[in-house]
Amino acid sequence: MPLDASTRELLLLAFARRRGILDALTTDAGTPEAVADATDTDPAVAEAVTTALAARGFLERVGDEYEPTNRLLGFLTKTDVRSVGSLPATLDTIDAWTDHDTDPERARVNRLGEQWARDDQTVRAAVTAAVRAVPDAEHVVCLRDGPGRHAREFAARGYDATVLESPARGDRVTPLLAPTDVRLETGGYDTVPQTDLVFAAGLLARSDDERARRWLAAAGEAASTVVCIEPVRDRSADGALLDVEHRLRDGGRVRPESALRSLFTDANLDCALAEIPGTETVALVGRRVQ
């Protein structure tokens, strides 16, 4: 199976990041020679990689040196989640597939950047599915929503929206949520506030079975309705591959429908599935068993 150009581009970036070439180019190395010296890379390889990065629009020639373009912005920023984009997190996924260690703090920022960069239409579709499930809800808690893309959409529709994040991730997204109508709280399973609706996007796929059970149990205690937006392994052509990816990247799982229903049953929640048009996910609607 031949590689296409997009795959080669990702492999180019993955190689350049692992060798330290991206770090060098986004700090003080502006020529292939300087890259080779800074990274102990063969000069011919440094030349080829630098030239390829420029050809793909990641660098531009300014005088005698190369400078990063906006396509490399996600590798330049260290703090602003909005500028990270989805590309660094994609490289983290490649690292997971190839058993290459990723710096935990860098991975945390990259994952938040990936969440911020989610497609607007996908975010709106997920929130619409939740609203249809609980049309009379007024308060919603979004679990591990990071920069709050879904929570912001709920707030825009008149909901009182709260994001529940871990302390480490919460520190990163506080500046993004502070000027919005979304409330940020930090904590875990035992601190999910009482609400009308608990919402989560992709949380089960990022969780092993024990964590998934604990999140669903906590959500079911906090609200009478829980909506999880998830891929389903036996409803997606790529489900089996996504399952491997989540196991390697998060220790999580992309589960078949039967396993997802079982998790909801364990949490004393009746489960119904609703398709989300235009996406590869479904809305799992859990209602507390009376």
Automatic annotation (TrEMBL):
Q: GO molecular function terms here?
A: methyltransferase activity
Question: Can you name this protein?
Answer: SAM-dependent methyltransferase
Q: Which UniProt keywords apply?
A: Methyltransferase, Transferase
Annotated GO biological processes are:
methylation
